[in-house]
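Quick one - inputs below.
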Amino acid sequence: MQRVQYLLLMFMASVAILYWRRYRSRTADLLFLILFCVLGALFILFPERSTWLANLVGVGRGADLLLYTLFCVTFLVLSRHKAKIEDAEERIAKLVRHLALMEAPDASSAWTSGDATPPSARTTGLPERLLDD
Amino acid sequence: MTGGDIIATPSIWVIIPAFNESSVIAEVVHNLQLLQDVCILVVDDGSEDATYEKARSAGALVCRHIVNIGQGAALQTGFEYALNHGAEVLVTFDADGQHFHGDLPHVIGPILRNECDVVLGSRFLGADSVAGIPIGRYYLLKIAVFIWRNLLGLKITDIHNGFRAFSKSAASNLKLRNSRMYHATEILEYIGRRRLHMIEVPVHIHYSAYSLSKGQSYGDFLVLGLDHLLNFFRQR
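Output:
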């Protein structure tokens, strides 16, 4: 296994773990952003140096390294989007729940008015039927 | 309803999250009404059919989500409603007819006797509980259970059974964040994290063409498995 393979796999695994189920880490976001800005700037300023970096991690050409990096960036961006969407869904759920609870009938009134079937009343102790075990 | 004596009776609530179950919901509700002592709450999770109307006319209390947000969210809504009304034992029950109302006394028994905080129904404990289960689903569940038992240390046989009972304290501290089917994972994590006392009891699962078509697809199970795994890493 080349070094680059380790690096890329570790990267993808850490992104998956960090962003799965909308756990969004501000720190991770910032770190990744800085990392890619720096790498991007370096690639632009010193394109010939990309080959050196590529060889360092076990890749033949700089262009190939760039391709792999782009793949990782895509994965990261998609993971963040997924996290954001899940966040939004959680907020929608809270809203829908609030509305549902606001509009829901009060149980006692519904039972008294006959809108819903009341549980039969027992006078004392545990309901016998449910103790038959 | 008579007056002050009611306080001695523990308030038992059955919460039924339902999405597009108009064909069976009335029957499910009526069966539970045979038990008489339970408060029945159907949470209509944005159904597009007549689930809400059918549940109401069957005599259940019904909460309604205006859009579909998922079974986990429906359970959470049901819990909050029930707890607001003084529930002491909260039971979750499927709306599609898979669960058998006759199992309910066995599921809530341990909680009524203060033996534990949470009771989980298991289809794998009884001899004939798995009649008719599709082979693929059986093995997928077994694999997931293996992961949970060995990696996560939770002694469990059925990780995805909607028939559960919670004590009042167990239910009030549970805040389900995941709307969709990952709530099953969340519940197990919650039990593990808080070291709640959990007991499994055998329950019967009725596999009909209808309930199977409504159930999880294999793709869902794979994603669920991945979810379990990733969550395992997050705990460490």
